[in-house]
Amino acid sequence: AIPLKCREIWKRYGANEFSDVDGFESQFVKHVETTLARSIYNCDNLAAYQATSNSIRDKLIVHWNKTQHLHTAKDVKRIYYLSLEFLMGRALDNALINLEIRDLAATAVDELGFRLEDILEVEPDAALGNGGLGRLAACFIDSLSTGNYPGWGYGLRYQYGIFSQKIVDGYQAEAPDYWLRFSNPWELPRLEIQIPVDFYGYTTTVKDPQTGKSKKQWNGGEQILAVAYDFPIPGYGTSNVNNLRMWSSKPTTEFDFQKFNEGDYQDSLAQQQRAESITAVLYPNDNFYKGKELRLKQQYFWVAASLHDIVRRFIKTKRPWDQFPDQVAIQLNDTHPTLAVVELQRILTDLQGLEWDVAWSIVQRTFGYTNHTVMAEALEKWPVDLFGTLLPRHLEIVYDINLAFLQMVEKKFPNDRGLLSSVSVIEESQPKNIRMANLAIIGSHRVNGVAELHSQLIKQTIFSDFVKVYGSDKFTNVTNGITPRRWLRQANPGLAALIASKLGGYGYLNDLNKLKGLEQFVEDPGFRAEWAAIKTANKTKLAALIASTTGVTVNPNSLFDVQVKRIHEYKRQQLNIFGVIWRYLQLKATPKAERTTKFVPKVSIFGGKAAPGYYTAKTIIKLVNSVGSVVNSDPEIGDLLKVVFIPDYNVSKAEVICPGSDLSEHISTAGTEASGTSNMKFVLNGGLIIGTVDGANVEITREVGEDNIFLFGNLAEDVEDLRHEHHMGRSHIPDSLVQVFDAISSGQFGTPDEFQSLLDGVRFHGDHYLVSDDFESYLEAQKLVDEEFRKKEDWVRKSIISVANMGFFSSDRCIEEYAENIWNIEPLEEKV
Ligand code: NTF
């Protein structure tokens, strides 16, 4: 009972947020002079960025608090999105847009003597992810807030995000990404929230003093604290602000005095540092699994802290345990958080004393699992020994879960040993492994893929035996999407404004199907001219980025052909660069006078990081740069062809690159790219795509129409047979590709030795990614691109029609589908 007088004072001063230019300016100056202890005389762009961000953050916190109170008061069901990666990029511009105060802020900082564009550039990217999987989590968290869904993200607050990439002599070099160099205004340290997490130790059987029954107990060996850092996530067109909670590891305060007193000061300090190392760095592998102990430690640390938090929140509601799944939905973003299944079962049985079967039913009703890849090398498997040493009690529970599951299978399918061994959580290999995907499927009520083709493929290939066991209803599809706030409004303000002028405002940004209304303007020449002018302006901006990062000058009138994404053999940047070499050879072989009539001037733009240990991917980067240095300095070629590799591709650079493309490449071997999401970003920004019949390309084709996309190559259903042909020695390398290989081998692009393995992979080692099978078809498609690009007006028409039909790919639609079909949660909007 708080006295009335107190209440009045609190009410008078509480939550007075600014709402006009004056209010913002007063906050800004206050932060410069007090928070930052600076003044008008020494306020640089960094200080201006921090003062701006702190002012916006204050506003966010007010709404964050209201939203959290509302959710608690209404006792709503929440969705918890567990992702080891959140590739957020910059926060300030996004917050200004979502709060709809960007113009206000621009005016205010201008009056204070700054330019908003300069201030925005100061912010380092929050690059806590590798690629598509991490960026998807970031888009989802934006859409959860925008759709007013009560949802939290849980992740790790790495001190170092994905490495920053330098190009030295054409090779990738890695440098640490210390994104927390300056204080981070977008996080709220919750230093009082410290959750102990145990590792190692042993298990014992003890008697429960209440029931008299014996039960298992885990006696942990090493304890580490998880400290919470909260990132408020504003929605667009709502005052709802959700929370992204990131854990940071720190040593328990119980310093080892024993050791200290024995004079082993060094060792006791080393132990402290070991604790901090858990959240030190993001593992830089994309679509590849590497069984490192520290990675498993990260996973358990994050999962244990998050579940402790979730369970604590549920206990406060005083509901009976069987209502847990009515209050809590947990989504597993890939298998990385699968230990959560085991941890919840442990909490419910060992700690809360529930019967095994009762607990297990709660677990299954709580979790959903999203698969993001069918590629074998990306599926997580932990060696049983490693697992059992780090998490001895969890290993026992895994065995018990598996036993119950296999007994169920055996009952349903008697005498099918093959089935039992394929669905078992334990892989009976040497050494034995725990298959995390199997555990995730068994522990969830729903499993989804991320595009229609991918969701079909998981049922037919890696999880087909689970379809046999559970039936196909357990498996579903939610095609990926992207947030139009960042990927249209923020990345491409010009286009976003033009669209708003035609559709009666920015309402389309949270109702993306409204884009359909653009179709009626396709035949308006004035509109097409405006559309084209915006593209040219964006290409000019991209040309400036290319010049500043590579030193190469490119002509914005050329066709900008872009492939930016992680460098991976399955994504086939090698196919692209082989095609570029072919084009170069053709150009050289064409008489000078005929060149401009035969070829459209083109800039081939590459970008992306290779995992530091991925030799072939690094070789591809070197080849691109080697080809670039030959082609770009060939006086005969001039503007007809340029080849550039933009270093350190990240979210902020993507925001410049996507709007500036005419054509982007999504050319993975059919069946390997689960979805792809940059394909959506490029099309939403008025670029066309050249691509294989893979991932979300299939649905993009369905939405924009076959005439507006350049498809080529073999289909997923043919891949197995083609690979078989190669293995039987029946490879056929088309003549065009032979010429390309000859040029490389002749030393035309530098020392051929280092590229030999790349060529041999295609020629002699089975051509696993079917480059030789798709090469001719790829060249055909590129030829068609040249022809279409010459018809300027038609190209613009295609661009407009494509954008008009991209509504389906909003991540808002994804979140609605998850909410309805998997999480069973409802939106709840704060009434302002
Ligand atoms: C990636 N998977 C896929 O390779 C992409 O096609 C997809 O768009 C994104 O997920 C998001 O769904 C992975 O990164 C992983 F980890 F599964 F290999």
UniProtKB/TrEMBL annotation:
CDD domains: GT35_Glycogen_Phosphorylase (cd04300). The modification N6-(pyridoxal phosphate)lysine is found at residue 681. Its EC number is 2.4.1.1. Its cofactor is pyridoxal 5'-phosphate. Gene3D superfamilies: Glycogen Phosphorylase B. Allosteric enzyme that catalyzes the rate-limiting step in glycogen catabolism, the phosphorolytic cleavage of glycogen to produce glucose-1-phosphate, and plays a central role in maintaining cellular and organismal glucose homeostasis. This is Alpha-1,4 glucan phosphorylase. It comes from Kuraishia capsulata CBS 1993.
